[in-house]
Design goal:
The protein is of the alpha/beta class. The chain has one domain: Aldolase class I (TIM Barrel, Alpha-Beta Barrel), CATH 3.20.20. Helices cover about 40% and strands about 15% of the residues. It has an 8-stranded parallel barrel, surrounded by 5 helices. Helix 5 runs parallel beside helix 6 and helix 6 runs parallel beside helix 8. The longest helix has 18 residues. It is globular. The two termini are about 40 Å apart. About 30% of the residues are buried.
């Protein structure tokens, strides 16, 4: 009997339409990615900045802006009341024309920030409305951004997947909702694996944010699977030998 072999088409990053934004708060890591033509922009958030040991928010932001050129970058407000969110957003927007100000979809009490989003976009502030996880939220924020400045809507597909739900149908519907406003771009946020880059690309998602640990796997894209299998066998053997295991 003839054996059958399933053929897996090798993916090709050169054919990607989705834009890859590096997501992180390590200045050295950001600098190392500048020469990578696949990196179209950058994002960060207060949690990543805290983990990276950042203590001076504004100083860090200006350090990043000094090295990334004109590529887009998102910095997030961290206030919880509307008036202070607005003040912070206007201050951040003033740091550079390539900045998209991150506004969370609600405050910590679950109150929608859509009215603030509408006010800021009408003033010409480029926004990245973040932490969305439902189509209803996408619909509300798309409405709030109507007729305003260019903006991103970040749907946390990775966190949706963490709940056991397939994010692809939701992300596809989000694109349909946003289609009437060509000034908006959908971000596939919080991916959990490199394959998500190709998931996002397959549905026409505009942008995917990728952390450095996932970006490090780009070198594996298209790798021969027989070769990768052998590499894995060699790794197990090497580690067992170096550990001096015996039975």
């Amino acid at each position: 009997m003839q054996s059958s072999k399933v053929a897996f088409a090798a993916p090709d990053t050169a054919k990607l339409s989705v834009k890859i934004f590096a997501d992180g708060a390590d200045l050295g890591g950001i600098k190392s990615l500048l020469a990578n033509p696949l990196i179209a922009g950058f994002t960060t958030n207060p949690t990543l900045m805290r983990k990276a040991g950042i203590t001076d928010y504004q100083a860090f932001a200006h350090e990043v802006l000094a090295v990334i050129g004109d590529r887009p970058i998102s910095f997030e407000v961290f206030a919880d009341d509307e008036a202070e969110m607005e003040r912070q957003a206007l201050a951040i927007a003033g740091w550079g024309s390539n900045i998209y100000v991150k506004i969370p979809v609600t405050n910590t009490h679950g109150v929608s920030t859509a009215p603030l989003v509408a006010k800021l976009t009408a003033r010409g502030v480029k926004l990245n409305v973040t932490a969305l996880m439902t189509v209803d939220q996408v619909r509300e924020i798309t409405g709030a951004l109507e007729g305003g400045a260019p903006a991103y809507i970040s749907v946390f597909a990775g966190r949706i997947a963490d709940t056991g739900r397939d994010p692809l149908p939701l992300m596809t519907e989000a694109l349909d909702v946003m289609r009437s406003n060509p000034g908006l771009e959908l971000i596939w946020a919080s991916p959990r694996e490199l394959l998500n880059v190709f998931h996002a690309d397959s549905i026409g998602c505009h942008i995917i944010t990728v952390t450095n640990d996932v970006l490090a796997k780009l070198a594996l894209v298209g790798k021969d699977l027989d070769e990768y299998s052998l590499d894995t066998v060699k790794m197990f053997h090497r580690d067992a030998t170096e550990a001096k295991f015996s039975i």
